[in-house]
Amino acid sequence: MNKVIEFLRMLRENNNKEWFAAHKGEYLAILAKIEDFASAVITGIGEFDKSVRGLTVKDCTYRIYRDIRFSPDKRPYKTNIGIFICPGGKKSGYAGYYIHIEPSYTYDGITCGGHFLFAGLHMPAPDILHSVREEICFNGEEFEENIRHAKGFTLSRTEMLKRVPTGFPADSLFAEYLKLKTDIGIEMAIDDQTLMSRDFANTVITRFASAYPFVSQLNKAVTFALEE
What we know:
Blueprint: H1 2-13, H2 17-22, H3 24-46, H4 57-60, E1 81-85, E2 96-101, E3 105-107, E4 110-112, E5 115-122, H5 126-138, H6 140-149, E6 154-155, H7 175-178, E7 183-190, H8 192-195, H9 200-227
Antiparallel strand pairs: 1-2, 2-5, 3-4, 5-7, 6-7
């Protein structure tokens, strides 16, 4: 993964079509490495979560090209690599297992970026979010236990509501979880040393195995919403 990190750092400094065209060969080489890595992780996760068996690398990876049509940021390329393994593939709406590779950098004196693992839902549709909140209301103890079971992960608290959403009990023992909005998930930071280790794929698979009960509970709620 060392060459992957080096390429992404250089791309951040040279995010233009001319530089990318001149280094297209390097990009194709690291893309092959990422695809091999993704394939190994998909297979490994499929050993404990049969709902992702049969997925292809294309089902779970993203293009490096940014959609800049409606964005004021006209940089043409992403400077990170994302892999999202979930039932039906990355656009299905189901909870799953996400790997984010992005070298850290400094912006206005603040450290940004960084590699991480995430298990759960990102920006769920309103009907799915409502179903997940109902699941938390009815089975909050299980939700908490599944968070504890996920070794090394902590609850993501991105963009939480200030109040419990309408229709849910404000005095619920699980009120803080009901306020989750953008992310219903758990996360874990990954350092460069871990990323570049020879057994990184096995490390990822092992970590995500401990998050399987959490993902499985969320997907029970997702399935309910999609079947309504």
